[in-house]
Design a protein that fits this description.
The chain contains 18 helices and nine strands.
Length: 432
């Protein structure tokens, strides 16, 4: 591989940059359109660190070639974006080009933000310049060594894999659907996590015209689930009201937020209007399943075997002693706080990363508008071996009518090595 091709690959690999820690924000409602849009974009999640100032940057993001750090986007004139004009801000936000002309790594979701309207870009600019307190904090240089840190290859990547121009309403769709599409594709940048990546780490589709769009993807030892209409591993069994409840509260009768979605719920979606949440739900419910799969038919044979003590499958004893108290012997959970396991899309997914990660490391707490959730998944990485965790996950994936591939101890060991236990720390930062 030549130096040029390696540099291109290195730039592409940076798309997989992820954040292990996030900052929770203040509980007050947005005071301006710009602040509302910043909430919708969840800007504070990547541009803040626990214990730091909002938007001051410094969040470490791992990549295969070394770590990069989010930048200071407060209006400080020396270390932030205080010297940015509206045109400079627009160029960075929608085109991935900083004021001095260098290309931003696509960890910044400018392929999605490209769809923002001029009016929304201006509102965001005014919020960051007039409402966000300036913080004098120097940006941290990336840990990517030369020549892999060259940025010019990103210009080629941008030319091939991004599309310019704001979102254009579809004339055959109503206003709510178009609003939902704008939020999901643009500010929400949902595809950045939920759309699979191609050979150059580009999102395989940027909107509903591609069947890969929002069909699920692995990211940072989690699997961001399918958001299309698949009845087994997607949102086929969810109503619009279920989607709204999940975005507003972080849980519903089907599921509870985990992984990076915790950040979204803690910082973003509960602050959106009911109209916008319903618009997002309408758009997501319009996306057909990427493949034909039947819904799970519940079977109570597992419940009967557990109650009688005759469940002899590996993992049954661990489930009885550890999992049943919260998720029920019948696998139906105790909605909306303790999710069901029977028919749960995360349980059924072909990629078991999220389920393994949850059992190993538990989940971070939900803090919806300042109120911590009383229920959360504990971690069991110290309590059980790789084989025991593999067995109980396999048991869950094949109980109560579930049918999903078995999990191996090697898969658990790999994730155990890659991940750290979830932190109980909850940081509250003010956006302004």
């Amino acid at each position: 591989m030549t130096i040029v091709s390696k540099a291109l690959f290195g730039a592409f690999a940076l798309l997989m940059a992820g954040a292990a820690a996030r900052a929770d924000e203040s509980v007050s409602a947005p005071k301006s359109q710009g602040e509302y849009l910043a909430r919708a974009g969840d800007c504070v999640a990547c541009h803040s660190v626990p214990g730091g100032k909002a938007f001051a940057g410094g969040l470490k993001m791992g990549t295969p070639l070394g770590a990069i750090y989010s930048t200071n986007i407060t209006p400080d004139g020396e270390t932030g974006i205080g010297g940015y004009t509206l045109a400079d801000f627009d160029n960075a936000l929608r085109r991935g080009i900083a004021k001095d002309g260098h290309r931003l790594y696509p960890a910044m979701p400018y392929p999605s933000y490209a769809k923002l309207t001029d009016a929304d870009v201006k509102a965001l600019y005014e919020f960051f310049m007039k409402q966000v307190p300036p913080v004098h904090q120097a940006n941290i240089k990336s840990e990517i060594s030369s020549p892999w840190n060259m940025r010019w290859p990103l210009a080629i990547w941008d030319a091939v894999f991004t599309t310019g121009g704001s979102y254009i309403n579809k004339s055959d769709r109503d206003a709510a659907w178009n609003r939902g599409a704008y939020l999901v594709q643009g500010l929400g940048h949902c595809g950045a996590c939920h759309t699979d990546r191609g050979f150059a780490w580009q999102e395989k589709a940027l909107d509903e015209s591609g069947s890969d769009y929002l069909s699920g993807a692995e990211l940072d030892a989690w699997y961001a689930p399918d958001l299309r209409g698949n009845p087994r591993v997607g949102l086929g069994g969810w109503s619009k009201a279920d989607i709204v409840a999940f975005l507003k509260d972080g849980h519903n009768r089907h599921a509870t937020a985990f992984g990076s979605m915790i950040d979204v719920v803690n910082n973003s979606t509960p602050y959106l209007s009911d109209d916008d949440l319903n618009a997002i739900a309408e758009y997501l419910k319009s996306l057909p399943a990427a493949s034909a799969q039947a819904a799970v038919a519940y079977n109570d044979a597992t419940t009967a075997a557990l109650h009688s003590g005759h469940a002899k499958e590996p993992g049954a004893a661990v489930f009885t002693g550890t999992c049943a108290n919260c998720h029920g012997f019948d696998g139906k959970g105790f909605a909306p706080y303790l999710p069901p396991l029977a028919g749960n899309p995360v349980v059924l997914d072909k990629n078991p990363s999220s389920l393994i990660n949850l059992v190993l490391n538990g989940s971070n707490p939900l803090v919806v508008k300042g109120t911590p959730d009383s229920y959360r998944m504990p971690q069991f990485r110290q309590q059980y071996s790789d084989q025991e965790i593999a067995d109980v996950v396999t048991f869950i994936r094949n109980g109560w009518g579930n049918q999903a591939p078995a999990v191996t101890a090697a898969e658990v060991a790999k994730l155990r090595k890659q991940t750290d236990p979830s932190s109980d720390q909850v940081i509250v930062l003010k956006m302004r």
